[in-house]
Amino acid sequence: xxxxxxxxxxxxxxxxxxxxxxxxxxxxxxxxxxxxxxxxxxxxxxxxxxxxxxxxxxxxxxxxxxxxxxxxxxxxxxxxxxxxxxxxxxxxxxxxxxxxxxxxxxxxxxxxxxxxxxxxxxxxxxxxxxxxxxxxxxxxxxxxxxxxxxx
Length: 151
Description:
Blueprint: H1 6-19, H2 26-36, H3 44-52, H4 60-73, E1 77-79, E2 87-89, E3 96-100, E4 106-109, H5 112-115, H6 121-126, E5 135-138, H7 141-150
Parallel strand pairs: 3-5
Antiparallel strand pairs: 1-2, 3-4
Helix pairs in contact: 1-2, 2-4, 3-4
């Protein structure tokens, strides 16, 4: 899965902010940059811990509000959750997720078969489908190995 370069991400960020009438603040720029380079699907709390190392005065509320704003204007997505805190994804390219039910890790994967899944006609009658993402659930290798070592 090809991710955008830093320059392309920054330009997409600026364009989207301008289009939605949002000021481009240093705080928003830092939060978006950290999200894009996180390599994971971080929570607002995880993002806050990373950002506070460089910007100790930034509040968790600022991080959370910025992430929700990014999701609202299409710069990021809120990743499906299972009762845990919201997690965010800056990768807007077509991809799917596999989620470990023990440790909570979420990995991206691409597969043309899943990309091309046909939406059932009954759903098409009830909804205007704007996109789809397959979410597989299971137990990751690390969690399985930990469990095996306990036995």
